[in-house]
């Protein structure tokens, strides 16, 4: 046993933060040369708003992906949640809490369905959640042509637009949720079991973990996060929006943020802090390109390249680790 | 059977189990007393692991009853069994490489305080557990993926102990342990015995079975052949029960002077992170044994020749031509095959068939069309020669028993028709009958002109098979021994009680 050096298992800083720093530095420089200003009040605020919405969804997505599953229905859950919230409120402050409660309950219900399909019926998560998503899409397309309902003014004024300095309340919400999820993952049995299932479901099962229960819970939490993001978007938009989730590409972007953040797509490795890094990275790129008025197509190409690069870098790391 | 044993801890009656209509266990009876080590032996695929999984809640039996401490039990899952005090160390590793030692040890029953996982307590208890089995060098917060095979086995043991089990099942726990670690395990098992814990012990190493157990149950084709008191039986008798035929305990004849051909492989001053100044010569037709302790660089040597972790200094020639294999593929092209020690981890594609698994390497290296039919025929022969037991070639390999999976991997490398064969622990986890078949096969390959390098921790095997033995210590060649050396000679070189043997 000579000569083996043990590094403690503390996770190193996810590479995403290095990338984020680089992107911000380069972006700042380029925008400066271009004669603009990357970090003025309004750009920073809008960056953080974008990050808050995507972040809430991505944090939930991190949970299911860590557990070796996936949720493709989040975009529809989000849209549904904006509608449930806005329609229940119907502009009345008095209905605020029941509306939020209802929106979250409906979202959780969808998560429960996802979870049960994946665990009890053993349907592949990709297919199961896609199917549930399409089901919701059918409902939304059928019932709504455009915005519906009206968000309570008090919610619009607080969650929607209130800020602490340059930091929107919604971003504070994201930080709180992220903290709670981080805590859950590192300090609760549920968290430990979830990561174990993602690492190897058979090992977890043979170690006495109740895989199904844990995975269902993760799916419910994921959907709750998407529902929360929906409530936030309703507060921004002032009404329910049946297509906001899909138009914002919340499903794919959330998965991208998780992967860029260093969580293995197969599960078992990663964490929620990296995901937030990934979200801020994606939002920053958006902000920079908006400043530079780059065309939308090119923007997508760059995002794609970044996602591929991230996955490639993580894969190389994993290889090197396996080799040593 | 009328001796006054204490009331049994575990009683199995008439256990039966079928997979997809294939009967794997049939009417098996077995009992374990508190403080007893009850060994279970049998050929690869006899049903040992399946039986152990039934006792530990991994599978539900189709028939029969389980009684634990006098109470009938029907476990609904591993969790149930753990609660009832049944712990198991599985034949395959059951660890999460991405998690720490402590997280693995306490997976499923993490210590909590006020509803939260108490990390500090978890680390402390893991340290205590590791210390209690004499492993103080292993930090509880190390990532399991960074540990060597032997240390991972230690973690497995700690994991089972953490359950405070009344009955502990060990399914081939020593398969990847070095000798001194086996000693530790022995000590550990005695202590558990004294605490009144019943132990079910599965192993192919009969020496261990005789050292440790009070009784032995022999399984064959899913049935219990017999249960005997260890003191009343002999290894020969056991083997007869297991295999159902007389087995010669002899190793095949060594290479005669005429069998030895030209030099196939030379290493001069080979070194890398784990090796220093290794000189070596390997001839066609001979079996060169490589001995040494765990960590002495035996596997590193094979991996260097195979290009998996190449030499960084010195030179390597194959058939007189200097070559620097930078990748396994390059080495395979040059005619080198390497049967790794970790056949489970590096070896199988779980959801593919037996035949596909066996053909994997040949398909990767040779052009698609040429000689496909001939290769398939040869692979089938090899599968038969190493005595693989599967329903047929098309069965998914994950349904094979552990030992049979290993045989398939073995066949895969032999199918390359290599001129230089590197074997790392070729018979680990393989039953006695198949073991001698593999010995015969190795010798046959040598006789057909292959140059064989064989690493083995099994000293009788190393001595019985090798024409010469090179012993490594701390990454260097400690000395070379001719055929006919004794176990003491090897051990002396391996631990370094003799300075460089004069040869
Ligand atoms: N899940 C499964 N599905 C189908 N067949 C199985 C399954 N598990 C085991 N088998 C079959 O049951 C038989 C017994 O396997 P088992 O693993 O119990 O053998 P074993 O005695 O432990 O052998 P070894 O010494 O190789 O570990 C084998 O023929 C194997 O192919
Ligand atoms: Mg077995």
Explain what this protein looks like in three dimensions.
The complex is a heterodimer of chains A (324) and B (503). Chain A is 74% helix and 1% strand. Chain A has 324 residues and is mainly alpha-helical. Chain A has a single domain (41-323), classed as Orthogonal Bundle (ABC transporter involved in vitamin B12 uptake, BtuC). Chain A has a two-stranded antiparallel sheet. In chain A, a hairpin with a 2-residue loop joins strand 1 (163-164) and strand 2. The relative contact order of chain A is 0.20. Chain B has helices spanning 48-55, 78-83, 101-105, 119-132, 149-161, 179-194, 206-212, 235-243, 298-305, 328-333, 343-347, 354-365, 372-385, 402-414, 432-447, 459-465, 487-495; strands at residues 10-19, 22-32, 37-42, 63-68, 71-73, 86-89, 112-113, 116-117, 167-171, 198-202, 215-220, 223-229, 263-272, 275-283, 287-292, 313-318, 321-322, 336-339, 420-424, 451-455, 468-473, 476-482. Mean pLDDT of chain B is 86; it is low at 499-503. Chain B has 3 domains: 10-248, P-loop containing nucleotide triphosphate hydrolases (Rossmann fold), CATH 3.40.50; 257-335 and 418-502, P-loop containing nucleotide triphosphate hydrolases (Rossmann fold, 3-Layer(aba) Sandwich); 350-416, no CATH class. The chains are: A mainly alpha (324), B alpha/beta (503). At the A-B interface, helix 8 and helix 9 of A face helix 2 and strand 8 of B. The structure holds adenosine-5'-triphosphate and magnesium ion (MG). Magnesium ion binds at residues 48-49, 91, 171, 401-402 of chain B.
CATH architecture of the largest domain in chain B: 3-Layer(aba) Sandwich
Please state the average pLDDT score of chain A: 88
Number of helices of chain B: 17
* Silhouette of chain A: globular
Q: Give the fraction of residues assigned to helices of chain B.
A: 25-40%
**CATH architecture name of chain A:** Orthogonal Bundle
- The quaternary state of the protein chains shown equals heterodimer
CATH domain topology of chain A: ABC transporter involved in vitamin B12 uptake, BtuC
């Amino acid at each position: 046993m000579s000569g083996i050096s043990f590094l403690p298992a503390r996770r190193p800083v996810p590479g995403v933060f290095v990338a984020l720093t680089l992107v911000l530095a380069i972006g700042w420089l380029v925008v400066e040369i271009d004669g603009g200003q990357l970090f003025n009040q309004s750009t920073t605020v809008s960056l953080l708003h974008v990050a808050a919405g995507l972040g809430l969804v991505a944090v939930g997505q991190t949970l299911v992906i860590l557990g070796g599953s996936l949720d493709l229905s989040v975009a529809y859950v989000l849209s549904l949640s904006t509608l449930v919230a806005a329609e229940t409120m119907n502009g009345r402050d008095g209905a605020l809490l029941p509306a939020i409660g209802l929106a979250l309950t409906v979202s959780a219900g969808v998560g429960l369905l996802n979870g049960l399909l994946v665990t009890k019926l053993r349907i592949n998560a990709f297919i199961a959640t896609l199917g549930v998503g399409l089901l919701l899409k059918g409902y939304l397309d059928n019932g709504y042509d455009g915005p519906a309902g009206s968000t309570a003014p008090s919610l619009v004024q607080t969650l929607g637009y209130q800020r602490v300095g340059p930091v929107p309340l919604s971003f504070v919400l994201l930080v709180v949720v992220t903290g709670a999820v981080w805590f859950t993952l590192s300090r609760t049995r549920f968290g430990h079991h979830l990561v174990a299932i993602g690492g190897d479901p058979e090992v977890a099962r043979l170690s006495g973990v109740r895989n199904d229960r844990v995975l269902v819970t993760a799916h419910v939490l994921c959907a709750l996060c998407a529902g929360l993001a929906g409530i936030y978007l309703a507060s921004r938009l002032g009404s329910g929006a049946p297509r906001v989730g899909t138009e914002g590409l919340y499903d794919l972007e959330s998965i991208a943020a998780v992967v860029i953040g260093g969580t293995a797509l197969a599960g078992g490795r990663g964490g929620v802090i990296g995901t937030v890094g990934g979200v801020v990275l994606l939002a920053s790129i958006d902000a920079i390109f908006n400043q530079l008025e780059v065309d939308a197509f090119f923007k997508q190409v760059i995002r794609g390249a970044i996602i591929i690069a991230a996955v490639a870098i993580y894969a190389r790391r994993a290889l090197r680790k396996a080799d040593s | 059977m009328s001796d006054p044993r204490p009331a049994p801890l575990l009683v199995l009656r008439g256990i039966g189990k079928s997979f997809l209509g294939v009967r794997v266990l049939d009417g098996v009876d077995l009992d374990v007393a508190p403080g007893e080590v009850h060994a279970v032996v049998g050929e690869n695929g006899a049903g040992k692991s399946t039986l152990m999984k039934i006792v530990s809640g991994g599978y539900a039996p189709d028939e029969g009853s389980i009684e634990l401490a006098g109470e009938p039990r029907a476990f609904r899952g591993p969790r149930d069994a753990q609660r009832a005090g049944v712990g198991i160390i599985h034949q395959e590793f059951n660890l999460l490489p991405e998690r720490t030692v402590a997280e693995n040890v306490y997976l499923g029953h993490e210590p909590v305080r006020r509803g939260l996982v108490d990390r500090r307590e978890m680390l402390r208890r893991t340290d205590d557990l590791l210390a209690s089995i004499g492993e103080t060098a292993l930090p509880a917060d190390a990532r399991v993926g960074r540990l060597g095979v032997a240390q991972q086995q230690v973690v497995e043991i700690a994991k089972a102990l953490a359950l405070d089990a009344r009955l502990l099942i060990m399914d081939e726990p020593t398969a990847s342990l070095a000798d001194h670690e086996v000693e530790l395990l022995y000590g550990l098992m005695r202590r558990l015995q004294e605490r009144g814990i019943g132990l079910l012990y599965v192993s192919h190493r009969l020496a261990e079975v005789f050292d440790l157990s009070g009784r032995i149950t022999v399984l064959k084709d899913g049935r219990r052949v017999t249960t005997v008191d260890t003191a009343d039986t002999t290894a020969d008798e056991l083997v007869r029960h297991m295999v159902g035929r007389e087995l010669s305990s002899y190793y095949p004849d060594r290479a005669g002077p005429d069998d030895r051909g030209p030099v196939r492989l030379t290493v001069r001053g080979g070194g890398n992170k784990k090796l220093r100044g290794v000189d070596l010569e390997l001839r066609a037709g001979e079996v060169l044994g490589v001995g040494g302790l765990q960590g002495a660089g035996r596997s590193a040597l094979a991996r260097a020749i195979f290009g998996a972790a190449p030499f960084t200094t010195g030179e390597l020639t194959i058939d007189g031509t200097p070559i620097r294999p930078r990748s396994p593929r390059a080495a395979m092209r040059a005619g080198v095959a390497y049967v790794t020690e970790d056949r489970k981890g590096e070896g199988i594609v779980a959801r593919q068939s037996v035949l596909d698994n066996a053909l994997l390497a040949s398909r990767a290296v040779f052009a698609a069309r040429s000689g496909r039919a001939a290769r398939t025929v040869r692979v089938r022969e090899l599968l038969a020669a190493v005595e693989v037991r599967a329903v047929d070639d098309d069965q998914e390999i994950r349904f094979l028993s552990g030992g049979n999976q290993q045989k398939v991997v073995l066949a895969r490398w032999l199918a390359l028709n290599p001129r230089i064969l590197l074997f790392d622990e070729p018979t680990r986890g393989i039953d006695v009958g198949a073991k001698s078949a593999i010995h015969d096969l190795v010798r046959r390959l040598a006789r057909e002109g292959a140059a064989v390098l064989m690493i083995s921790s099994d000293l009788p095997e190393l001595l019985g098979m090798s024409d010469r033995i090179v012993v490594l210590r701390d990454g260097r060649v400690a000395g070379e021994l001719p055929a006919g050396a004794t176990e003491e000679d090897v051990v002396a070189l391996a631990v370094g009680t003799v300075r460089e043997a004069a040869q």
